[in-house]
Amino acid sequence: MSGSIRLVEMVDISKFIARAEDAFKKRNYEYAIQMYLEALQIAPENLDARKRLRVVLLQAEKDSVKIPPIPGRTLVLSRDPKVQIAEHEKAVVKDPRSAKYNMRVADTLAQMGHHEAAGHIYQYIIDFCDKGKDNLEAMKKGAKAFIDAQMADLAQKLLTRARALAPQDKEITDLARNTAAASTLSRISAAKSSREMLANTGEAMELELLNRKVLTKEELPKAIEVVDRKIGEHPTDKTWIKKKAELFGKARQYDQAFQWLMAKYEELDKPQDLVELATRYKNQDFEFKLRYCAKKIQDEPQAAAEWKAKAARVKAEQSKFQIAEYMRQVEEAPADMDKRFQLGKALFEAKQFAQAVEHIQKASKSPKLGKQVGVLLGRCFAQMNRLELAEKQLQNVRAQITEAEEDLFNDVRYWLGDVYARQGKTDEAVQLFQGLFLDNAAFRDVGQRLDALQGRK
User: Is residue 309 part of a domain?
Assistant: First the structure.
C-alpha cells in the first residue's frame, strides 16, 4: 500500500526450536545453541528462544562442557541492529555470565523496540551474571524496558531492588512515578475472561493500536489522539510522553519525536531521561537519512555523486547537532562523565581534536569509561601528529586491557599499529597487525594495512 510502512510477515521458527529442544535433551549442547542462534537470526524478538539459549549455556557450564567459540564478523562493518544483536549473542555463547555481553544484547533489543525481551535479559544479568545483584544499571534499564512493555509489576520489583542499593537516586524515583500508566496498560493487557475484556473493550482496542510494531500514516493520528487524551489526564506522566515519541518513531518520524520530547523537557523542569531519549531519536533521524543515501548510491549509480553530496551534508548536520546538544548537556550536568565523553567523541568525529582532548581528558576520571577514553585520547594525539604521546597513551591502555574485552582489545592494537606505521616502526606495526589479523581478519582494513607494510619491508 502506497504511503504506508508494511509489517514484515512473521516467520515460523518452530522447527529450529524443536531441533534445539531435542538436542538439549540429548545433551548435544553445541547443536542446541546453533539452532537457537539460527532461530534468533530469523526472529530476534522471540523471547522464549533467547531465554532457552541461556538455559542451555548455563547447563553446559554446569556439566563442564566447553562450547567452542562461534566465528563472528566485525561490528563496525554494520549498523544494522539485527546484525549487531546476532554478533553480541555469539559473544554471550563465549561467556554466558558476562554482564557486558548480555547488556549489549539487552540494549540492542531495547533499541529495536523489543522491550519485553530486553527487560528479561536485564533480569538475567541481575540473576545470573557476575556481580549481577549489585548491577544498578541493569536494574534501572530493566525497569525502563518493562515499563515500556506495560509490565508494571516486573518494573516495580526491579525498582524496589534498585532503591535498596541507591535510595537517593533521582532516576529511580522518576521511574517509580512512571509506573502508573504502565500499570493501567498492564491491567488491560492481562484481562483473561470475556467479562473483563468486554468491560475494557474500548481500552483494549486502543492498547492494540498503541502496541503495533509499525503504524501506517492513517493509523498514526488515531494513536496520537489516544495518547494525547492520556497526557491530558496525566500531563506530567513521562510514560505517556515517551509513548507519544515512540509512536512517531514507529512511523519513522524521528525528528517529530525529537521535537516533542524537547518541548516536554523544557516544560517539566528538564528531566535528563527525556533529553537523552530525544537525542537518540534525533540521531536515529540522521542515521535513517544516511542509510537512505547509501541505498540510493547503490541503486542509482548515475546519480551517485549527487547522493554522496547529500550524505555529506547530512553527516555535517549530524556532527553540528551532536556537538551543540552534548555541549548543552555538559553545561547542565558538568559532573556527568558519560555526557562529556559523548561530547569528546562528537568533537573528534568533527576533526576538532584539540577541543576533543579537553573533554576526553576530563571524562577519564570515570572508572567505567577509563579504557575507552584512553583509546580515543590516543587517537586524538595521533590526529594532532603528537605521535609519541599517542604511542605512550595507547601502550598504557593496552597494558590494562585483557583479551576478554574483545572490542577494546582489537581497537587498541589497530590504532597502536597505525601509530607505529606512521612513526616508521614497521616491525612493531606488522607484529600488531599480524596478531589482530589472526584473531579477526575482517577487522577494519587490517589485511590491507598488513599487505602494504609487508610490501615495503
Answer: yes
CA angle 243, 273, 76 (to 5 degrees): 90
Q: Provide, rounded to the nearest whole percent, the portion of the chain with pLDDT above 70.
A: 86
CATH number (domain holding residue 398): 1.25.40.10
Tell me how many domains the chain contains.
2
Residue with cell 475484556: 197
Lowest mean pLDDT among 7-11, 47-51, 243-247: 7-11
Give the CATH number for residue 215: 1.25.40
Q: Sign of the C-alpha dihedral, residues 55, 61, 64, 66?
A: positive
How does residue 198 score in pLDDT terms, banded at 50, 70 and 90? very low
Q: Which residues, 6+ apart, have CB-to-CB distance to 97 below 8 Å?
A: 61, 128, 129, 130
Q: pLDDT band at 72, cuts 50/70/90?
A: low
Inside any domain, residue 296: yes
First to last CA, the chain: 60
**Domain, as residue range, for 218:** 206-333
Q: Is the dihedral of CA 127, 37, 15, 31 positive or negative?
A: negative
Has residue 77 been placed in a domain? no
Number of residues in the chain: 457
| Residue carrying C-alpha cell 606495526 | 429
Say if residue 246 is in the same domain as residue 328.
yes
Answer whether residue 285 is part of any domain.
yes
Same-domain check for residues 211 and 328: yes
Nearest to 139 by CA among 124, 151, 117: 124
pTM over 0.70? The answer is no
Comparing CA positions, the residue from 112, 25, 34, 26 lying closest to residue 68 is 34
Tell me, yes or no, whether 211 and 329 share the same domain.
yes
Element (H, E) at 177: helix 170-177
Same domain, 236 and 301: yes
Of the ranges 43-47, 182-186, 204-208, 452-456, which is most confident?
Answer: 43-47
Task: Report DSSP letters for 183-252, one per residue.
Answer: HHHHHHHT--SHHHHHHTHHHHHHHHHHT-SS--TTHHHHHHHHHHHHHHHSTT-HHHHHHHHHHHHHTT
Query: H helices of 26-96, where?
Result: 29-42, 47-62, 81-94
Based on the fold, state whether residues 304 and 412 are members of the same structural domain: no
